[in-house]
Amino acid sequence: MKKHILGFPRIGPDRELKWALESYWRGTCNQAELVDSCRQLRFNNWETQRKAGLSYVTTGDFSLYDHVLDITAMIGAVPERFEYSKGIVDETLYFSMARGEKGRDVLPMEMTKWFNTNYHFIVPEISSQTNPRLSCSKILEETGEAVQAGYSAKPVIVGPITYLSLCKGVNGFDCWEKLDSILDVYEEVISRLGKDCEWIQIDEPILCTDMAETARNYFPATYQRLNKVSGRARILLATYFDTLDDNLDLALDSGCPGLHLDLVRGRYLIEDLLDRIPKGMVLSAGLVEGRNIWKTDLSRSLVVLEKMNRHLGDGNVMVSSSCSLLHCPVDLERETEIDAEIKNWMAFAVQKCEEISILGDSMGGRDCSEIIEASHMALESRRSSGLVNDPKVQIRSGRVEEDMLHRNSRYPVRRKEQARLNLPELPTTTIGSFPQTPEIRRERSRYRKGEISEAEYNIFLKKIILQNIEKQLEIGLDVLVHGEPERNDMVEYFGQQLRGFSFTKNGWVQSYGSRCVKPPVIHGDVSRPVEMTTEWIIYAQFLTRKPLKGMLTGPVTMMCWSFVRDDIEPREICRQLALAIRDEVLDLEKKGIRIIQIDEAALSEGRPVKKRDRGEYLRWAVEAFRLVTSGVEDSTQIHTHMCYSEFNDMIEAIADMDADVISIESSRSKMELLDAFRDFEYPNEIGPGVYDIHSPRVPSREELVGLLAKAAEYIPKDRLWVNPDCGLKTRDWKEVIPALENMVAAARSLRTREKGLD
Ligand code: GLN
Ligand code: ZN
After folding, report:
1. Is the pLDDT of residue 74 over 60?
2. Quick check: 534 and 586 in contact, CB under 8 A?
């Protein structure tokens, strides 16, 4: 049985790509050195796949920045502002598209999340001027490189239907008008690749979404064209991240000789599916999860493979990863410090290649029973481990009652109680974090290295909190925060204090370009053994008579930004997290904090790929939020914050969270998001961010007055808050102070009543 993966992580086991790129951008290494580092990374990846025993090595999965941008380069769809005059897209132009051009003030192309992953791609821009032609032959060169070195290469490219579905038409241009000429380029590439390979993998994850009718309509003819030119190579149509559902027919009738299905996230009824596979079509079974870090249940996978083999015939089944391994860390062997028991349950990209190989070889008759048995034992030990199971947590979670999901009174009643906070009209506040200065970073790193004691570090943090309070009082904000100097990350900080979490040393995954994240791992039942934030927040409140807002991260965000266990449902993980955070909320309240904010930055990105699953998701996500917040008195004000502006289709769910106040991102879209509030009146209070913290620009008072006046057209002034659109931790005080001063001045100038007048 043939064995392959859909793609390997490009960053390298020690994030070599990051270091190479950043040093190239800084000018400390030249182009030749960059090219050389990248070649080494590719060869290492191929060698890893070969050593593991895979039948093919995947080529073209490597990228200097992003695989969607690679297609943009391949077809030469360079936006006009980069002044590209035909020819080739070289590294300089490629990086300009990704990162902008500093000297010339040319904006980079936009970036957005790749389906529901935490990977960001560069959004293509197509206009009437786009003139597709082969402009970068990276995929051909890299494949040639592998073939020359004696590897059996299987190139991968993003398919034209997915590419165009993700494009942005400039000034309303219909991107599909360029399909024909884009296909000319694809044809050229595929026919050239076809000379050296058995399979060409074309990724069309868009098939697993609620695909637009236009895209569906163009699909058959597109693949008719591509299949015609592939020569002796066969096209493997790769789909992942969900089930094909209504688009299964499109895939089966595409004429592609191979089809890859994600059997981890896709919920297929195998028998039904097998009945529908046309004779002779090769099925690539994505059985090894590409987006998580757990070992595969090999015995169960073998049952599926046997079923497939029996039905489709020998040689018509391949075994693979569910999606590209891009979304998981590189090599578990480097984790020398993680608990050995937990490590034994895990597999990173290198280990996943080995799992795939074992599955294929077992099917081919090799005796792998020892390895399969060992893997089975690991899974068994995980199931019964005390590190995973905490009966107290399970019992408590099972006993959540409906009344724990509701505040004592409805918002109008709570509002009267909260008048005790004595806030003016248009209250001003911030989202939580203040600049993480070089000084804060330095002291944190000294503390981690053991150069200063915990007591010394704590004294330092309190000094910063004191400064933060003084600055806010000077600026004149109404609701203060402690500034989060003790956190370098809003998820990791809490994870480190919760039971059920573990942390890797080197478990990096690419977020975008050279940026990587190291998500915490939720390996077991979650509980909160000790108070997590009270020391800092109570201290800050002690320094001022103004109300201080306590800051916590919400359960959905904790979950979305972690690697989560796969042995219980996400909603159960989320509920456990919610109970732990609920305890913290109640402790803060008990100690006198009257305003508490629960950040749910990831609520929208956690949504399933398909609309039909979203209602269910939002139900339990909202329920978790309510579980966190519903234990407090009416007089305690609950805030939440969300980092995005596209929520027309979830505004009701957001209202259902029943926070007293929400703050949302909006300044970049010039309050456009408030359109959502025209048809749906948000019942509680809301702070549409007026100061864009993503840019160093200081907005003027007049500009802020304008934005607030606009917001007041949608939201009654007595329910309107004034705040930036996100936390300020990446900014510099020298911008933050004048910006917040202007914000406070803008709010004051629009007030019709001051504090205590009503
Ligand atoms: N309280 C967090 C902060 O201010 C919120 C950040 C976020 O939601 N991304 O940094
Ligand atoms: Zn935010």
Report:
1. yes
2. no
